[in-house]
């Protein structure tokens, strides 16, 4: 009994070594995920620290002529005061288009011809009717002359008492009928001649001519097309070509209704064409259309070129600067004036004035020499050229040379 109790006491004092590996496995099971989580957090932190900051940019620009005299600006498109879709006045099949797109034409020049066989048949029939009416008139004239002579002889005989008075009345009545037949023949001849003129006019309408000097801007139909005497915008029912007078170009600019009070007829203006951005063209306000586009709350102002520039075409984009007073001819060019940047793009520190240039998504610090301030801009007497992208209002961002940046999208 005592031996059994001794063995129980000794077994209670023995260390159970089978539990140690189990505890180690539990610790490893928690340490591995924790280590992975720490590694991920380190990688995310590194990626965030290397992420390219977003910056807002603007371009260095050359000053435009007349900026100091500009009352307001507006955008629009070039159009022509004479621009028409040329269509025939009669229906028919197109047998010839005598011009091509881009060809200059003179007033009265043949543009196209329609099949004229039906019109010639109608004209021949009208001419035949005229000849028949002329023959009928000649016969009526002869009958009237004969009736006049018979009436005169009958009157002489009646005075002499050779014939009775009743016979004289019958002859005079017959003479009046002959005269009325003569009048009818004359009227019928006039109608036949008018019908012949109408047929000749219809035949002339099969030849389509240019109504004014211009340039063919579009060819709308080819030989074989059957045309109706009409043309609707967007749907061609009879148009053959579109003709534009390139010497009567003007700009249709849209001005908000709140700004209309600042526009006056005859006001000087400068026109800038998107296709010719390096030049400014003097113009003048011709008229303001007396209507407001309610969807946009704008009115159309027509600005005419003082001299239509070579290369200007209808539907070109344009910008108009409405001036307070005309510019001297020497001020129409802005050449020689230093470029400008937004004032907020110029940073000043211990190294002097500079701008942050963005090229290929990376930053470069470029020193500048600043000139006069013009509104919200500064002129640069030394620095990057026009068209260079610079960071606007860098603020507290920590920027450095070679840093990769992301350009903020417009409107964002």
UniProtKB/TrEMBL annotation:
Residues 251-322 form the CusB-like beta-barrel domain. Residues 86-227 form the Multidrug resistance protein MdtA-like barrel-sandwich hybrid domain. Belongs to the membrane fusion protein (MFP) (TC 8.A.1) family. This is Efflux RND transporter periplasmic adaptor subunit. InterPro entries: Beta-barrel_RND_2, MdtA-like_BSH, RND_pump_MFP, YknX-like_C. NCBIfam families: RND_mfp. GO terms for cellular component: efflux pump complex. It comes from the Bacteria. Residues 123-150 form a coiled coil. The chain crosses the membrane at residues 30-48. Keywords: Coiled coil, Membrane, Transmembrane, Transmembrane helix. Residues 341-407 form the YknX-like C-terminal permuted SH3-like domain. GO terms for molecular function: efflux transmembrane transporter activity.
